[in-house]
Amino acid sequence: MAVDTNPEEHRILRKLIPLATFPSAAFKELCTNITVEQVQDAVIFKRGDTNSDLVYLLDGSVTLQAEGLIVEVIASESESAKFALAHQLPRKIDAVANGTARIVRLNAEMVNNPPPAVYQEDQSYIITEESDEAPDDWMTTLLRLPLFQTLPPSSLQKIRNGKRLKRI
Questions:
Q1: What is the average per-residue pLDDT within 17-22?
Q2: For position 106, which CATH number holds?
Q3: Which residues make Cβ contacts (< 8 Å) with residue 64, sequence separation at least 6?
Q4: Are residues 95 and 128 in the same domain?
Q5: Which element (helix H / strand E) includes 95?
Q6: Confidence at residue 19, expressed as pLDDT on a 0 to 100 scale
Q7: Range of the domain at 146
Q8: Residue 129 has pLDDT above 80, yes or no
Q9: Which of 5, 57, 87, 160 is deepest in the core (most CB within 10 A)?
Q10: pTM value surpassing 0.85
């Protein structure tokens, strides 16, 4: 099934690396192109597999094993679940669902090359430089930080006016 647009599904997917860094538009586009699978006590992929899809665990647990030896058991609540399962190609290990597991397969090309964020400036604001007359002014000091120098002027104006910014 395609990923639902409900907040719970988005919250789960937004924790995945690198999806956590995607701009909102790119993330929504990606969600329209992926499907969630439910696997019951079955092999997700085998050693030697060359399918380039990235597989993420959303719910349940998966055992990663090689030649009958358990390498790792990954639970959906663990930090390891934020990353794609055994993403090296060809696969070096098998992945087997323990009971019922929900997974998502993502096209590696889409994940590794997301579209760049596009910033649109609001033309109704004018940014002017302030003089150095008040060097102790906290706002001026803050705006000189490299982080704030990369923001579009419209966002800086909203911050200055105390308005909330939309998440992109």
A1: 86
A2: 2.60.120.10
A3: 70, 71, 72, 73, 74, 85, 86, 93, 94, 95
A4: no
A5: strand 94-106
A6: 86
A7: 122-163
A8: no
A9: 57
A10: no
Predicted pLDDT of residue 45: 96
**Helix or strand run (H / E) with residue 74:** strand 69-75
Token pair belonging to 147: 């982080």
Same domain, 76 and 132: no
Is 78 part of any domain? Answer: yes
Residue identified by tokens 């060097």 is 135
Instruction: Give me the chain's average pLDDT, please.
Output: 81
Examine the pLDDT at 159 and tell me if it is beyond 60.
Answer: yes
- Cα dihedral value 9, 11, 12, 15, nearest 10: 150
Name the percent of the chain lying above pLDDT 90: 38
3-state secondary structure of 168: coil
- Overall number of domains in the chain: 2
Query: Degrees (nearest 5) of the Cα angle 41, 32, 118?
Result: 130
Q: What are phi and psi of 139, to 5 degrees?
A: -65, -45
Parallel, antiparallel, or unpaired: how do β-strands 54-66 and 69-75 relate?
A: antiparallel
More confident residue, 86 or 32: 86
Q: What is the CA radius of gyration of the chain?
A: 22
The answer on 84 and 144 residing in a single domain is: no
Query: Do residues 133 and 105 share a domain?
Result: no
